[in-house]
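Q: C-alpha cells for this one, please.
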Amino acid sequence: MPIFEVMSPDGRKYRVTAPNGATQEDAIAYVQGGSVAPMALPEQAKPQQSMSPIGQALSGGLPMFGGGYAADMGMGMKQVLDAGAQVLARATGMGVKDTEAANQRTRDLYEQNFAPESRPGAALLRGVGQSLAVAPVTPALAAGGLVRSVAQGAGMGGSMGALTPVYGAGDDADFWKQKRQQVIEGAAGGGIAGGASSVVGRVLAPKVNPQAQMLLDQDVTPTPGQILGGAWKTGEEKIRSVPLLGEAITAGQRRAIEEYNRSLYRKALDPIGLGKEAKALPVGNDGIRAVGDRLSAAYDGALARSVPSPVDLPFKSALTKLESMVPRAMRKDFADIIDSQVRARVTQGQTLTPTVAKEVESELGRLAVGYRGSATESERQLGRALQQAQQEVRALVARHNPVTAPELRKIDQGWSVLTQLENAGSMLGAKEGIFTPAQFLNAVKKSDKSIRDRAFARGTARNQEIAQAADSVLSQRYPDSGTAGRAMLGGALGGGLGYLNPAIPAAAGLGALAYTPIGQRATAAMMTQRPQSAKELGELLKRLSPYLGGPGAAGLLSLSP
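A: Here is the predicted structure, written as C-alpha cells:
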C-alpha cells in the first residue's frame, strides 16, 4: 500500500498508509478533514512527534553528513543513555516496563521519522554517535601494534554492545542472555574494525626505521627485511638457506653493502665535485684506489695553479705570539718544531712554495694531534698552539692564493674521508677491500683524534651517523656468492629428492623477484614512499583505530536478528 506524508493545518506532520489506488490528494483530504471518508483508509493516519529545534536541525542533516546521517549519530548518542537506564532498571527491578517502553518509543520514532534502513551506513553512524557519547569518560587510548589495536577495538566494541538497548526483551534471563550476546558481537565487530583500520593505516603510513631511511637517502637500498628490521630481518636471515630465494636474498644483502661502500666513495669525492662518478666505480681495492687517484689529481691541479706564498709580517707576528703563549717548559719544543718544519723550509726569496706549504701544514697537524692527546696539560697546550700554527700556514696560503686555497680545503675534506676508507678496507675480513658497516665504524673511531675519543663518544665524529645506521641495518658480514645455496638446490633436484613439489621452487623464484636490483628498489619504494596526504590519512587511521571499535560493533550488531 502507498504511504503519503501530509502536513496538517496546525503544522503537524502525518504519515498516512492508504489503499492501493489512492493519491496524495486523497491523503491530504483525509488528514485535513476533506471529503474522503475514514472507511476508505483502513489505517488511521498516525501523527509524528513534533521535534525540538535540535531535532529539526538533525532531520535536515548537516552538510558534511547529508540527509539523516546526523540523526543516526544523534540516535547512537541517545542509545547510550537508554541502555544505561535499561540495565539499571533490570538490575534493580524498578521501572522496567516504563523504561523499556520509553526506549521502544524512541526507536519507533527514529525509524518512523528518519527511515534509517533506507540509508547505507546508518548503523555505523549510530556507532559513531555511541563512541562520541562515551568519549568524555573513556581513558585516552593510544594505538599501538596490530594486537594492541585489535584489543582496544574489541574493548570499545564490547562497551558499545553493552551500551545498546535490548528491544523486545522478555524476562530477566532472556534480557541478560541478549545483553551478553550484544557484548560478544560488539567485541568481535570492534576488534575487526580496530585491527583493519590499524592495518590500513600502516599500509598508507608505514613506520620506516629512521636508520634505514637514512641509508635510502644515501642511495643505499637495504633488503625488505632490513628495512622493516626486528623479526622481519631475523626471519630473512633464516631463510637464506632456502634454494633460489636464499641466493636472491644473499645477492640483495651483498648489493646493499656494495652500495654502502660506493656511498662513502661519493662522500670523499663530493667536495671536489666528482661525487656522481662514485656510482660507476668498482668496489673494494680498485674503488678505493680510484677515489685516491681523483683526489690526488685534483690536488696536483690546484697546486699547479698556486703561487709561492711570501712569509709576510702577519704570519711572523702570529708565530711569535703563539710561542709566548706556550707554557715556559714547552716553549723550546715549540720553537724547535717551528724552526725545523717552517723556517728551515722557507726559500731564499722568503716564500713557501705550494708543495712545501702543504707538507708543513700536514706535519703540524700530525704533531698537534699527538700532543693534544697527552695526559699532561702543558703538552696539550703545546698541541693547541701547533694546531693554531697550522691554521696560520693555511691563512698565509689563502692570502696569496685566493682562488686555489678554497679548493685545497675541499680536497682536505676528501682526504679525511679517504683515510677512513683506507683504514676500513685494510682491516682483516674486508674481502678485497670491500668493508662491512662494522669495519667502517671502527675506522671512524680510529680517525677520531679528539681527547679520549670524545667526538666518537658524543656521536659527532666525521661520518659516524651514517656508519652507525649501516651497522644497525645492513649485514654484519659481506655475504658469500651463494655457492652453498646452489649446491643445496642441486642436491635436492638430483640427489634423491626428485619428488620435490615443483610449486616450492616456483614460489621461491617468485619471492626472489623482490631481491633483484630493480625489484629491491621497487620494493623499498613501495614500503617507504607515500604521498603526504596518504601518510596523514594513515596516521589518522592508526590513532583512531581503537575508537573505530564503536562503529564496527554497531555494524555487526545491526546484522543480528
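A few notes: Residues 35-67, 483-499 have pLDDT under 50 and may be disordered. The first strand starts at residue 3 and ends at 7.
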